[in-house]
Amino acid sequence: MHIHRFERFWIGVSLVAIAIFIATVVIGFSVYDLRVIGAEKTVDPQNLQETKFADPGVRKAEPGSEVDYEVYVMSRQFMFNPGTAEPITVPTDAKIRFHITSPDVLHGFEVVGTNLNTMVIPGQVATFTTRFDTPKTYGLLCNEYCGAAHHVMEGRLKVVSKSQFNEKQLVQ
Ligand code: CUA
């Protein structure tokens, strides 16, 4: 069977591309320690009252923790708690770990204008750790379709300077 040389060329290109895609997955998992969401980060979405999500908000991290503050956020139809009714307030120059879950359906949690962006899946706890250098108020957006009022599901993340941050507002 005769295969035209252009066709042979493009078959070669696609095989190389497939090899590169497989290599990125293998290297990502072995060298860069990427993980899919694991069982250690699951919660029962029907029983969140037994977890820290029952009292969401910003907490001081446990002594000896690798971060300074832990933020628990519930994404639900159609609000972030906290975030929508009142902003999530965090200080600059601190290591902050976010924990986000949903009691109902799939949502998103995006800090607009940053690369902080995660899916929020019922039963799973999405986490990321970050640090803000300058005071600024960011928008929060849900970027997964979650129902009739998805398009109005938004909130605020307020980063204030370390000296203005009031630890009395922390969740105990
Ligand atoms: Cu929540 Cu879209």
What are the salient characteristics of this protein?
five-stranded mixed beta sheet; alpha+beta; 1 helix; binds dinuclear copper ion; Immunoglobulin-like; about 30% strand; about 170 residues; single chain
The end-to-end span amounts to: 75 Å
Overall structural domain count: 2
Which hetero ligands occur in this complex? dinuclear copper ion
CATH class of the largest domain: Mainly Beta
User: How many β-strand stretches?
Assistant: 10
Tell me the Rg in angstroms.
21 Å
SSE-based structural type: alpha+beta
Order of helices and strands: HEEEEEEEEEE
Quote the CATH topology of the largest domain: Immunoglobulin-like
> Major sheet: size, sense and barrel closure?
5 strands, mixed
Strand percent estimate: 25-35%
Q: Tally the helices: what do you get?
A: 1
What is the CATH-assigned architecture of the largest domain?
Sandwich
Segments where pLDDT lies below 50 for 5+ residues?
none
Name the CATH superfamily assignment of the largest domain. Answer: Cupredoxins -  blue copper proteins
Mean pLDDT, to the nearest integer, reads: 91
Helix content: 10-25%
What general form does the structure show? Answer: elongated
